[in-house]
Amino acid sequence: MTAILHQNSTIQLHPKMPHSIPGANSAENDEVPIVAEEMETDEMQTDAEVNKPNESNVTPAEEMTAEDAIAEQLKDTKVAEAKPEVKLEDLFADDDSDDEFASSNIKDTKVSSSPPEAPSSPVNIGTLSRATDTDVMRAFYQRLFPWRSLFQWLNHSPTPSTDFGHREFAFTLQNDAYLRYQAFPTADLLRKDVLRLMPSRFEIGPVYNTNPRDRKTLRKASSFKPLAKELCFDIDLTDYDDIRTCCDKANICIKCWQFITMAIKVIDIALRDDFGFKHILWVYSGRRGAHAWVCDKKARQMNDQKRRAVAGYLEVIKGGAQGGKRVDVKRPLHPHVARSLDILKSHFQSDILEDQDPWETDVKFARLLDLLPDRSLNEALRKKWSSAPGRASSAKWADIDALAKSGASKNLDSKALLEAKQDVLLEYTYPRLDIEVSKHLNHLLKSPFVVHPGTGRVCVPINPKRLGDFDPLDVPTVTELLDEINEWTAPEGEDGGKVVQDWEKTRLKPYMEHFRSFVAVLMRDEAGVKVKRERDDSDAMQF
Amino acid sequence: MSRPDIKRRTTLDHRKKQFSTPTYAPVEYKHRLNFYATPPTADITLEQFEQWGIDRLRVLAELEACSFRNKSPIETASHMKPLLDKYLPLSSSTSNSPALQAERQKDHYSHFILRLAFASTEDLRRRFARAETMLFRIRFQGDDSKERAGFVEGLSLEWEAVGEEERRQYAEELRAAGGGYPKRIEEESYFKVDWEKVPELVEGRRVFLRGGMAYVPSREQMSMVVAEFTGRLERALELTSRALPRLDEDDRLSPILTHLSQNFTTPDANYSATQTSLAGADISARTIDTLSSSFPLCMQNLHRSLRRDAHLKHYGRLQYTLFLKGIGLNLEECLIFWRGGFNKITDDAFNKDYRYNVRHAYGEVGGDSNRRGKGYSPFSCHKILTEHPPGPGEAHGCPYRHFSTENLMGLLQTVGVRDQEALRGVREDKEKTKFHLACNRVFEYAHKQEIQKVREEGTWGAAQLETLIHPNEYFKRSYLLRNLGKHQKKEEGEGDVKMEE
């Protein structure tokens, strides 16, 4: 079994994700303990230490607290029996969900109960630097990552099928190598390989017609084809850089997050009401954006042309930096655009005009004037605004109508002005999608619940019903979560009858629950659909 | 392979099956248009087989050429009319022409002949389906409405008519989705279909969508019928290709079929670097700045963006790298060029994020070494015009198409096109969406004297001065014209600078 797992793990680089090619990673295989050993030994520990270069990041103080917490847990948890390298059960993922976490508890004792080392530095090292630390990542993957739910989400049923087994996973390793075409029959085998390779993050690709690991055994390269993948959307704040004033590049704050909030609202309702999709998972991308995974069976099976159609339907902001006017919509407005405009109106007033103040300076309001149609009105506005520097954008926005009414321009086309104002509103609020992600069946996208290597934040699902409450800066980082496990104490009045899982002890809880219920509903709907073998019923000609 | 349907299976006596010759009723063509659902069954002569195939091929090749020249549907239709009348006439049912059935038979048979010829590779299948779709569309438009209605009815597609009440309920949305059409909702009837059947209407937001159903006005029927046509044809081609190896054939047909498929050439064929390499030219990272004056506007724009921002986004890098590869910049020099261009980042970041891209474009890395060949071909104008329009902050694409007119004029002036006459011409071309013409106009303006010279001296043939449809050809021609004295000798005897096969 292990042989099968390893022989095909070639390093494969994705054209859009260039990285340097490091040496082979097979050396790690023997060093990193893969499965839970019965109990830790000092020998084991030293072994593990040798291959961890950033050992010093872990301060003794933390080790102690971790140890205490583990001791606590051990009281509640039975010591699991030693597992052989590969168990038969690993092949079937139908054991109880509690199992997957229980076994991890045992394992953790090994890592954390090592004797404190000589104190390297008493200062607590910042959360960011610790985020990619191998120890932290291992603990996260072992104790918090929802392997079972992830499996069920991609497999659409509790029994392993090709939906999961032929799905491509791609790992970004710690040395930035990019390992493509990984595939796993079950959640446990995926988990095992993740723990072996300790990728800093991993991505999910399409389901192929054959196992991606076997693609080179096919006679023709062209017979290796992607069959299905969730319809994905990617919204990233960097695409808003020309209109957001509060932050730039990789930085975000709650003010500019509102762009994402608006985008989710607009896209979500269009996908549900217009296209009739039901299972839409929104995921925080870990830094400055959000991803959508549309998981309906119909959406998963769409070909590139249909994906392009959806993307085109939703795309309103077009053109590159040199494209001039970016919004060009037909009148009367298509129902989708009209509805979006309604949704975005209130956001425009508060989140754009007040919070972003986009036309503060002369240079900036020149952009606004470019978009307005009437010359003499523009002249009047320019004069007024230049003489009153620092006039707020909301006042400027109001000025347009005020001056128009006062008759600053003799032959003003008020309809054209209204339309131009709508276009401006759309340009500043309408979602800017990274359309390539949505157009192609075989695009890879970061998995939910992985840790963003830059911020250490977990890519948690966003509940669209409580979109307004979501604050990206409040999303827990991996180190915070591990600390929360350690700090957790059983609520009073409860005996140890019920095992409390690690994620329930942390702020990850609401996100996990949202994901689990999402997956449950998806699986229920999927089970309802009788799977019919689609036969070519066309009387197509064959010679 | 679909199995024989049940009815047929039971009527055939299995004991006699292998000896019996199937008999078919003669086909009667009721409609002018044909979905080509049933294969021909009658006998034709070998000469007919070849001639009909060639005739249809002429039409399809010309249709494809029209699309490469970016002709509008109306222009294409008028351009194609004489050709169609000559090679593939189809009279309407009302014309009472005596040749009616024969014409339709030829149309039917020639379609299936070419299906055989073009089923072999995926590329040919795709192009064949595209050209056939264009042909079908032109004919569908040319059909009179009564005949069209009869034809569509005969197709028995799964369309659900939208009821009176529902139509009134969504009257406003339906009108808005139709761009204000119709003035009164009673004037139009609607069909309700799964939106996946009309992806092009959805993509252009030309229909009202609700709960996964598209409300298609009957005037948009065409796009649905056409989508259905393409879909069925693609599926059928796929099946044909799988059946081809089992084609029980004496060797009379296969030479004809091979010949036919080889003659379906295209101006978008792969661009080969050897044919355009410039002997003796110094093409290296250092000289790109100087050479860039001979680049077409799209590449000049990329070059300027790179110099200005010290950065280009993914598709910009890809388009530019492949172009540079095409002009003969080798991988090593290309890496030096990009490293120098991205001068605001560290070596580490460059190696990590960009180096691989460049090497991938040259076919050095990625995928299976046996399969990747020499990397991607440089993009043709067609590809640049039609694929991946630039998004926010991106500089790739074709400036004539993707820039606003003001920005285009600004760019042209900064690269030295100041002549009002030329600029006005470009402006008009852009308005008419003749982007090729605009680019060729600028080329002719920039090389006015040289072109005049070679014309007068007669050193360049007509083939060397035909319309440019590839950025690398633009560069090559420009370079040769600017260095007339130096490279004249080498070019002689080599024939024209043709790059497409």
Automatic annotation (TrEMBL), chain A:
Ranges for region Disordered: 1-27, 42-68, 92-127
Gene3D superfamilies recorded: DNA primase, PRIM domain (3.90.920.10)
Protein name: DNA primase
Listed GO biological process terms: DNA replication, synthesis of primer
Organism phylogeny: Eukaryota, Fungi, Dikarya, Ascomycota, Pezizomycotina
InterPro entries in the record: DNA_primase_S, DNA_primase_ssu_euk/arc
Known EC number: 2.7.7.-
A cellular component term, taken from the record's GO annotations: alpha DNA polymerase:primase complex
Keyword line: DNA replication, DNA-directed RNA polymerase, Metal-binding, Nucleotidyltransferase, Primosome, Transcription, Transferase
Automatic annotation (TrEMBL), chain B:
GO molecular function, one term: DNA binding
A Pfam family hit: DNA_primase_lrg_N
DNA primase large subunit C-terminal domain segment(s): 293-475
Family: Belongs to the eukaryotic-type primase large subunit family.
One GO BP: DNA replication, synthesis of primer
Originating organism: Hymenoscyphus albidus
Residues reported to bind [4Fe-4S] cluster: C298, C381, C398, C439
Protein name stated in the entry: DNA primase large subunit
Cofactor, free-text remark: Binds 1 [4Fe-4S] cluster.
Alphabetical keyword list: 4Fe-4S, DNA replication, DNA-binding, Iron, Iron-sulfur, Metal-binding, Primosome
GO terms for cellular component: alpha DNA polymerase:primase complex
Keyword Iron-sulfur (UniProt): yes
Gene3D superfamilies noted in UniProt: 1.20.930.80
InterPro entries to which the protein is assigned, alphabetical: DNA_primase_C, DNA_primase_lsu_euk, DNA_primase_lsu_euk/arc
Function description: DNA primase is the polymerase that synthesizes small RNA primers for the Okazaki fragments made during discontinuous DNA replication.
